[in-house]
Amino acid sequence: VIFQDVAPGVYYFSVTGLDDYVDGRTDSFQVTENELTEITLELEKAASGSKEKIYLKFVNSVGESIQGVSVEVVSQGQIFPSTGASNEEGVFTRLNMDANTYNIIARKAQYVTKVVEVETVPNSSSTPMEIRLETATENNSGSVKVEVEDGGVGIEDVIVFLYSEAYPGFRIAAEETNS
Known about the structure:
Elements: E1 9-11, E2 14-15, E3 24-25, E4 29-31, E5 52-59, E6 70-75, E7 78-80, E8 91-97, E9 101-107, E10 114-119, E11 121-122, E12 129-132, E13 149-150, E14 153-154, E15 159-163, E16 171-176
Parallel strand pairs: 5-12
Antiparallel strand pairs: 1-4, 2-3, 5-8, 5-11, 6-7, 6-9, 9-10, 13-14, 15-16
C-alpha cells in the first residue's frame, strides 16, 4: 500500500486484527519532502489458541438488543481499527486480541455515548459481556458546539477531538469543522 501526500515528520505503522498473525508495529521512520520512504513490516504467525476476543452484547434499558452500535477499541492510547458495528442480536466481536483489558467507546444515534473497560475472553466463549446503553434525553446528555476561528473567521476542514477527563489519553469522538 502507498500513502500519498503525507506531511514531513516521524511516523510508524501498526497492523492489528488479523486472525492468523500477531499484531505488529514498525519502528519510527522519517518522511521527507519529495521522497518515497519504503517500510516493511514482518508479521509473526499467531500460535494456535494464543489470541482471545472482545465479545459484547449491547442492550437498551429493557434488555432489548441494539443493532448498529459502532465500537472503537482502545488500549494505552492506541485506537484499533474499527471492525464494524453490533449485529441484529446486538453482538459485537473483535477477534485476534491479546489477552488484556481494553476500553471501548460505544456510539449509536439516540443513545448516550458510553466508555467501558472490558476484558478479553477465550475464543471459545459463547457468553458476551452485556453493555446497557441509555436512550439519550435532555436529562442525561447534552451537545457541544465547537467553533475554530482565526480572527473571528471560521476555519474549515479542521479535525476537532473530544476527550474526557475521566479517560485521559484517548479521544471519545472526532468531527471535522465545516464552518
